[in-house]
């Protein structure tokens, strides 16, 4: 077990997979000489050379398109996009090509492509850099979606993503890059579709997505110490496939659910998850499924407005208490 | 394909109804639009017509049974069709199972009446509470919900189940009755119950013989609504004397024109209606924490009927002439007396007038008729000493009006201005003709 930062855990996973498999290569803006906008690819150009760590011009649709082609031809590309906002430039390649090709050709070709990118607000980068699009990608069949929160999950899930034969949208979080966490030595890839129960409790289930798993945990501590409410906190870790069983098992125990996400409320991950919960655990619910989401607006630049636009601990505390009829 | 006849909602406030008389025998032919059954609502007895052709293949409610609105009371199908129906066709399958055996004469073993703690119609409960109630044999309708909007939640069902364990006796009383299929059923709100004139059961006490009478549905409604009003309405009264000299003169002159001259009460109704138009708050209602204002002025007036009290309504009284109001009021009173009044004639009131002047009552306070904002209590018209402009004591024809107001919507000054306008109109009754 060694302690490292989230970005170092990602770097380790890339290095291990590149060492183990010649077909794995990195491509993206500033991933080489500059070592990545968030330093995730530090030292890799030096170790693996220009052939396997490729800097590109600013042209997201082309970068992803090259990734799709390389994957179809038998390589295992890992594309880095600087933020998830920029991935919208590559939506045609992601949706119309990467997600669809295996289906279009009856599985004669596959697209083992990983697209890594950070999302999230908090750094005053305005609406063109700060959004959360996990809902957008979860919407699309043919893609796998990972939203790791801890250093260990970042490591284990990225290794799994690289080894998977499906295109994977790998969503990192800008705020989490500096977080330290324990990563097991020689950790094997984690399985997609296995949620982590971060905290056990019998009163209310809180599902936190991406950074919101962290926020949910803090809220759970406050709920326990100040309100005597024991929350069970679940980090789904991957949204496609989604480990609904773990969520349902918890809801059947607590009879209440709060879903916390940084993204927008309409058509959000929480909207979808709450539909799944009520479809499959209707008779176990003692209160409507609650959602805590980002504000329904493009992300503001102003610091106070930006802070007010995504969920914080107190919002989660309030929502959880409401499901217990306390507010 | 058989269809269910459901207990109809025959008035706004109707929550349940009693089957008084089936007008078609079991197995008999029914025709769309023809009388099928007589139903007692909270307001009146109504004849309900069939809305489909066919044969009355099954009676699900016997005469005397009381069921919630929406519960099936009979099935209409093809001639010779059997009563057994696919479960999917019966919206409340459980309710059907719980009916008494059609042949058994269980009339005297009435199940305990159901206290509807949860308000009318559908019981609001969380899905979990609903499931647990079924498993624990607790009746949701009996539970007061503690969740938002009175929703019954898990904790409420658990508390009710605990309470049930501690008093095992009532639970046993409400326990399953065998059905015609011989199966047991769980107790539920839909168990038909008897109501009305069960024969008095005399008992003896220090007060001598006690005979106990079941109140009629109407009397129960009156007692519930009046208790509710007294418990929840913060009321206050305003009072003033009206000089009726010119009203008396007007009425004497009208008498020479018609043998059905408008009564003083009709004049009060007309004056109140005109003043209501100018005082929307008085014509409004306080309902669920909100003020409601109505575009129509419908004045109800209390009529004592055979051991009961009803308030028929003169709709759009502000638009009607004094003569029209008088004729309509007379018709309504006759219909109350002969029992042919129907719920539509008793509903929609935005204000009420109660008059006990004919009994010599000088002044009184009444209970606000919720959710209305106020009620006007009219005392006797009599000669009383008054002081005129020059300080002399003179005899005047005075009548005391008392306005009882719900302070949640109607404040002192508003009520006073309204009442003053009613007085002005009555003291210059020519304005009633405008």
Provide a descriptive summary of the structure in words.
The complex is a heterodimer of chains A (327) and B (434). The termini of chain A are far apart. Chain A is built from 12 helices and 14 strands. With 327 residues, chain A is an alpha/beta fold. The longest helix of chain A is centred in the last third of the chain and has 17 residues, at 211-227. Chain A folds into 2 domains: 2-183, Rossmann fold (3-Layer(aba) Sandwich); 196-323, Rossmann fold (3-Layer(aba) Sandwich). In chain A, the strands form 3 sheets. In chain A, strands 3-2-4-5-7-6-12 form a 7-stranded mixed sheet, with helices on both faces. In chain A, strands 9-11-10-13-14 form a 5-stranded mixed sheet, sandwiched between helices. With 434 residues, chain B is an alpha+beta fold. Chain B has 3 domains: 3-97, OB fold (Dihydrolipoamide Acetyltransferase, E2P) (Beta Barrel); 113-178, E3-binding domain (Dihydrolipoamide Transferase), CATH 4.10.320; 219-433, Chloramphenicol Acetyltransferase, CATH 3.30.559. Chain B contains 10 helices and 21 strands. Chain B has helices at 93-97, 127-136, 154-166, 168-173, 217-232, 245-255, 264-278, 322-337, 343-346, 412-427; strands at 3-6, 16-22, 29-30, 35-40, 45-49, 54-59, 65-68, 72-77, 193-194, 203-205, 208-210, 235-243, 285-287, 290-292, 299-301, 303-305, 308-310, 313-314, 351-355, 374-387, 393-406. A 6-stranded mixed sheet of chain B has the order 12-21-20-19-15-18, covered by helices on one side. Chain B has a 5-stranded antiparallel sheet with strand order 5-4-2-7-9, with no helix packed on it. In chain B, α7 (264-278) crosses α10 (412-427). Chain B starts with a strand and ends in a 7-residue tail after the last helix. Mean pLDDT of chain B is 80; it is low at 84-120 and 167-199. Chains A and B meet through loops of A and α2 of B.
List its salient traits:
heterodimer, A: 327 residues, alpha/beta, Rossmann fold, 2 domains, seven-stranded mixed β-sheet, 14 strands, globular, B: 434 residues, alpha+beta, OB fold (Dihydrolipoamide Acetyltransferase, E2P), Dihydrolipoamide Transferase, Chloramphenicol Acetyltransferase, 3 domains, six-stranded mixed β-sheet, five-stranded antiparallel β-sheet, 21 strands
């Amino acid at each position: 077990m060694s302690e490292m930062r989230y970005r170092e855990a990602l770097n380790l996973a890339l290095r291990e997979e590149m060492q183990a498999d010649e077909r794995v290569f990195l491509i993206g803006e500033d991933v080489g000489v500059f070592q990545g906008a968030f330093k995730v690819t530090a030292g890799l150009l030096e170790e693996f050379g220009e052939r396997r760590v490729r800097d590109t011009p600013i042209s997201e649709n082309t970068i992803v398109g090259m990734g799709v082609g390389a994957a179809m031809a038998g390589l295992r590309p890992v594309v880095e996009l600087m933020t998830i906002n920029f991935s919208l430039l590559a939506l045609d390649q992601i949706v119309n090509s990467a997600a669809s090709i295996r289906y279009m050709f009856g599985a004669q070709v596959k697209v083992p492509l990983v697209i890594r990118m950070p999302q999230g607000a908090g750094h005053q980068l305005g609406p063109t850099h700060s959004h959360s699009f996990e809902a957008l990608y979860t919407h699309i069949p043919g893609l796998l979606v990972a939203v790791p929160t801890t250093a260990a999950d970042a490591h284990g899930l990225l290794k799994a993503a690289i080894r998977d034969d499906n295109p994977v949208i790998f969503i990192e979080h800008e705020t989490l890059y500096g977080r330290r966490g324990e990563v097991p030595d020689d950790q094997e890839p984690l399985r997609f579709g296995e949620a982590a129960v971060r905290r056990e409790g019998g009163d209310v289930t809180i599902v936190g997505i991406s950074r919101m798993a962290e926020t949910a945990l803090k809220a759970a501590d406050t709920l326990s110490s100040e309100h005597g409410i024991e929350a069970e906190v679940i980090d789904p870790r991957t949204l496609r496939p989604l480990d609904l069983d773990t969520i349902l098992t918890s809801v059947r125990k607590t009879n209440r659910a709060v879903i916390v996400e940084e993204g927008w409320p309409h058509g959000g991950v929480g909207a979808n998850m709450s539909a799944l919960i009520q479809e499959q655990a209707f008779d176990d619910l003692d209160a409507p499924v609650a959602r805590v989401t980002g504000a329904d607006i493009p992300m503001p630049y102003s610091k106070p407005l930006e802070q007010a636009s995504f969920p914080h601990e107190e919002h989660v505390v309030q929502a959880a208490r409401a499901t217990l009829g306390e507010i | 394909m058989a269809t269910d006849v459901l207990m109809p909602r025959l008035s706004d406030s109707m929550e349940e109804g009693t089957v008084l008389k089936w007008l078609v025998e079991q197995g008999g032919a029914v025709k769309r639009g023809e009388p099928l059954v007589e139903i007692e609502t909270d307001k009146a007895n109504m004849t309900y017509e069939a809305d489909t052709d066919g044969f009355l293949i099954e009676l699900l409610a016997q005469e005397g049974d009381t069921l919630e609105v929406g519960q099936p009371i009979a099935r209409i199908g093809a001639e010779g069709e059997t009563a057994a129906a696919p479960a999917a066709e019966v919206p409340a399958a459980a309710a059907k199972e719980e009916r008494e055996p059609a042949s058994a004469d269980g009339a005297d073993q009435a199940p305990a009446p159901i206290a509807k703690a949860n308000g009318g119609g559908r019981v609001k409960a969380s899905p979990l509470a609903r499931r647990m109630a079924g498993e624990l044999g607790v009746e949701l309708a009996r539970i007061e919900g503690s969740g938002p909007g009175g929703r019954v939640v898990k904790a409420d069902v658990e508390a009710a189940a605990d309470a049930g364990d501690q008093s095992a006796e009532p639970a046993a009383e409400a326990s399953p009755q065998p059905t015609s299929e011989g199966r047991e059923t769980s107790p539920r709100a839909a168990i038909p119950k008897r109501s009305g004139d069960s024969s008095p059961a005399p008992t003896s006490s220090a007060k001598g013989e006690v005979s106990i009478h079941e109140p009629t549905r109407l009397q129960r409604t009156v007692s519930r609504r009046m208790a509710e009003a007294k418990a929840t309405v913060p009321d206050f009264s305003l009072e003033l004397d009206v000089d009726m000299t010119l009203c008396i003169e007007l009425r004497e002159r009208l008498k020479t024109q018609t043998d059905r001259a408008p009564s003083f009460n009709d004049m009060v109704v007309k004056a109140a209606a005109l003043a209501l138009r100018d005082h929307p708050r008085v014509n409004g209602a306080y309902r669920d924490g909100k003020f409601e204002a109505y575009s129509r002025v419908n004045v109800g007036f209390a009529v004592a009927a055979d051991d009961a009290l009803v308030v028929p309504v003169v709709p759009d009284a502000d638009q009607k002439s004094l003569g029209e109001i008088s004729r309509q009021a007379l018709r309504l009173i006759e219909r109350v007396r002969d029992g042919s009044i129907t719920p539509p004639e008793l509903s929609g009131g935005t204000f009420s007038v109660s008059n006990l002047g004919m009994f010599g009552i000088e002044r009184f306070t009444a209970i606000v008729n919720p959710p209305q904002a106020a009620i006007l209590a009219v005392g006797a018209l009599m000669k009383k000493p008054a002081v005129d402009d020059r300080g002399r004591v003179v005899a005047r024809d005075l009548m005391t009006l008392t306005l009882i107001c719900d302070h949640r919507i109607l404040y002192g000054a508003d009520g006073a201005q309204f009442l003053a306008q009613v007085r002005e109109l009555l003291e210059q009754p020519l304005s009633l003709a405008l």
